[in-house]
Amino acid sequence: MHLKGKTALVTGSTSGIGLGIAKALAVHGANIIINGFGDADAIEAERKALEELNGGKAAYDSADLTKPAAIEAMFARAEADMGGVDILVNNAGTQFVSPIEDFPAEKWDLILALNLSSAFHAIRLAVPGMRKKKWGRIIATASAHSLVASPFKSAYVAAKHGLAGLTKAVALEVADAGITVNCISPGYVWTPLVENQIPDTMKARGLTREQVINDVLLAGQPTKQFVTVEQVAALAAFLTRDEAANITGANLSVDGGWTAA
Its Gene Ontology molecular function terms (predicted)? Predict the structure, then answer.
């Protein structure tokens, strides 16, 4: 329970990787603030489950991270209710796929706002409190696309490359303040969203389930295995430990070898 008494804010954490990270931090005793959209009853059930894991507090904040004023209000509530944010996990993100000449400008603006600018605003608001405490952990969920590109994902690739650069710059600024700043870059993660796409892809391409998994989804991952939410979450939890105090400014790949090629 090395995080007892510390508070973690995880954005985009009502499901998927974000929720997995929130659970991993709660297991180590952290108070948790989850954030994101979804069914109110389901979110409340997850919030209660987090309190059972950490034996402490868990809160839900519905802030729309595309609005800087909403992020500022979320941090003000975190300060009032939890004594500030000790661990910030910038996980929120969205995707849109389109050729560049047809890419809707509003989708570009949305992806940059949610995947990159929200992290900037959260970091600038978190750092002063971390400096006062002489301790802090800032972690971003980036992507293999923070290191390499794929076609038709211009906004997402640009935002994730930007997130990796933001991580490096801030890490250097706060290196002497007891604050580490890192990003985790997963490859394809096994989630219900991915699983539910398989039958449609089988039908559309005339492939078997195994062919879809290995030749379509995992074509770029040499291990031919999906990354799991738990594997990403375990790395995030490790980065909060004292043993990770000298890991900063790093982009840590969890991608089955995708970016080694």
Answer: 3-hydroxybutyrate dehydrogenase activity
